[in-house]
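Exercise 7b. Backbone tokens:
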């Protein structure tokens, strides 16, 4: 960990801990939010998960965001999503596929 002097003469570790804690909380929330086709709506879940990923991985590509979110579905749903998407799929395409797959299964 970086312990160089930061703002107010405090070590950087002490001045950065709120940001690090916030990122850890977002990452934990992302990992624990699993898609349930019976209870969840596609659009709110997708947008919330996308915001969480962007918060703790600001440099992540759109393709990896989509893969990570679709990976949270697990099993047959994940396979159904991944076979219908491409690397160039937009967020709108992903949400449409998401809703199409969940209404048919």
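Sequence design result:
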């Amino acid at each position: 960990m970086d312990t160089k002097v930061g703002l107010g003469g405090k070590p950087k570790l002490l001045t950065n801990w709120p940001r690090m804690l916030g990122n850890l909380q977002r990452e934990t929330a992302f990992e624990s939010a699993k898609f349930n086709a019976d209870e969840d709506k596609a659009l709110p879940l997708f947008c919330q998960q996308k915001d969480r990923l962007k918060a703790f991985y600001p440099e992540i590509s759109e393709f990896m965001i989509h893969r990570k979110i679709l990976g949270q579905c697990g099993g047959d749903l994940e396979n159904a999503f991944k076979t219908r998407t491409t690397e160039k799929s937009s967020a709108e395409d992903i949400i449409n596929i998401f809703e199409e797959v969940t209404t048919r299964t």
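Instructor comment: The first helix runs from residue 12 to 32. The chain has a mean pLDDT of 76.
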